[in-house]
Amino acid sequence: MGDRVGTPAIEARSLSKVFGAGADAVRALDDVSLTIRQNEFFTLLGPSGCGKTTLLRLIGGFEQPSQGDVFLEGQQLTGLPPFKRPINTVFQSYALFPHLTVGQNIAFGLEMLGRPKEKRTARVEQMLALVKLQGYANRKPAQLSGGQQQRVALARALASQPKVLLLDEPLSALDLKLRKEMQIELKRLQTETGITFVFVTHDQEEALTMSDRIAVMDSGKILQIGSPTEIYEHPQRRFVADFIGETNFLEGRITEANGAAVAQLACGHNLTLNGPGQKGSGGGQRVTLAVRPERAEIVPPQGEGLPATVGAVVYMGTDTTYHLTLADGTPFTVRSQNHEGARLDLASGAAVKIRIAPAAIQRLAD
Amino acid sequence: MRVDVTNPLWRFRGIRATTWVFFAYLYLPILVLIALSFNENRLATIWSGFSTQWYGVVLDNDDIVRAAGNSLIVASVSTLAATLAATLAALGMAKGRFRGADGISGLIALPLVVPEIVTAVATLLFFILIGFKLGLLTVIVAHTVFCIPFAYLPIRARLEGMDKALGEAAADLYANDWQAFQRVTLPLLWPGILSGGMLAFIISLDDFVITYFVAGAGATTLPVYIFGMIRIGITPEVNAISSLMLIVSILFVTLSFLIGRMRR
């Protein structure tokens, strides 16, 4: 695939999709542009109705865009029906053909492509081995468990070696344990086959554990694209910070003191900001800061930090969550790992201080 | 009948007796008809001994055999035509929402609730108006029309129960529209089509009112023939034909039900 490297697997240019017309029109996708690289595990993450499935369906060809274009390895896909796109899909409901056996299901795409029977049979065996379902070729889908059906759906979609595999919340019907197994399994399949995966989910944990890059979506727009670390550690928007993991939000105004940027918080105290990308803007500007609960630390009241009052203390096994309140009533959560002897013994109502390192503070764009 | 005391129904006084009366009301006349078809006596209502002679008489009667033949021709041809039309209608209606879809759905099912005598008179008027000579063909055309909704409903139900993603999956796996229909939609729809077809067949076979109006000379079907016989008097012959028709009906309805229930 040498010459393909460098060309993006999927490129979307100013894609919009409007359903309905007139007053009932719904803009499911609003001027979305994105680039998905070769051999990437790319995740579209967002709440239901954010447009992630619509974007996937536009790539698959099940819907046509109202505006904009989709490219596959530089070639225009717009207008092509699904059966002319070298892209396959794992559907949320799996959509296995109930009247065909597992083997016939897997061979379906190859048969439609006109591959000879010997090749199909060999390929079915190979795919069954890949998803660890050897010996199941003659079963009907109804005779399989949910997890097994999921594997057949994967095998069927991968059998004709598509350039891109689309996965529409494929794990949502599985129970927690099986879902964890399949997450690892999917990642393995992606690495082994070298196929670009575009994965749709509303589960942020799923997105963080599997993806090379994540696009966070809301209201038909992409808010941020980045690696799981970037998305989690450096969210640019309030929505992203809020949607992925737990976050404390602090409102304030930017000023400068001793050459460093300082935020005057609503609670009346100052917070020094000198982490990367946090300098620059002028004085008095309103700002929202995000701090992850595990990045803040509780210190005794005589220490340095923001004064706070302890509310509830929740012991959760591996760690403990402290629900605190700042001077102006803003809630603030701190989570600390439980290790021998290090546990703070705090009663409700106790006065403490919260120490936040400048590097732990993320300034949000809105 | 075993009494299940946990069922609150049994707390009503007289529920058992009412149930028996209900079923007797429904099925006793039919049982009497079947019993009397084996009556030896020429007078249908007076029992004088067991005999199967009337079945022989029925099968020897050329007019009856011809009428039965007409019935089968009409039912077969109109079933095929109606089922084909109903399948296409169901596929079209399932393809997507469009303006007036609900109205068209209603129009397709409307013949089910239009009084049959109205349809009969209207159809006859229509044939006369366009100068269509009454005969077997007019019966077939009329039957095709009123059988469509009966065939349509099971097919539509089957189609509605189908995962829409199946068609998309076929398209996703490089099947063009025709291949997707042939390889996925049709095999899955087949039980619904068979079920609808059998329902249409039995409705056509049983029809009297419309047939009576639009049948021309030589196009007498079995129900019309039986009606003619009844006007002279109830004979064991009539009982025998009716029993035979009942068996055919039960057979088809049962098959239709079983196929409709078939999952794959």
Give me the count of strands of chain A: 20
Output the structural class of chain A: alpha+beta
Multimeric state: heterodimer
Q: Mean pLDDT of chain B, nearest integer? A: 88
Briefly note the CATH topology name of chain B: MetI-like fold
Spatially, the strands of the biggest sheet of chain A line up as 6-7-8-3-9-10
Compute the separation of the termini of chain B in Å.
34 Å
Q: How many separate domains make up the residues of chain A?
A: 2
Overall morphology of chain A: elongated
Number of domains of chain B: 1
Cα-atom radius of gyration of chain B: 23 Å
Shape-level CATH architecture of chain B? Orthogonal Bundle
Describe this structure in words.
The complex is a heterodimer of chains A (366) and B (264). Chain A is 23% helix and 34% strand. By secondary structure, chain A is α+β, with helices and mostly antiparallel strands. Chain A has 2 domains: 240 residues, Rossmann fold (3-Layer(aba) Sandwich); 119 residues, Nucleic acid-binding proteins (OB fold (Dihydrolipoamide Acetyltransferase, E2P), Beta Barrel). In chain A, the strands form 4 sheets. Chain A has a 6-stranded mixed sheet with strand order 6-7-8-3-9-10, sandwiched between helices. A 5-stranded antiparallel sheet of chain A has the order 13-12-11-14-20, with no helix packed on it. The model of chain A has no long low-confidence stretch (mean pLDDT 89). Chain B is mostly helical. The longest helix of chain B is centred in the first third of the chain and has 34 residues. Chains A and B meet through strand 6 and helix 2 of A and helix 7 and helix 8 of B.
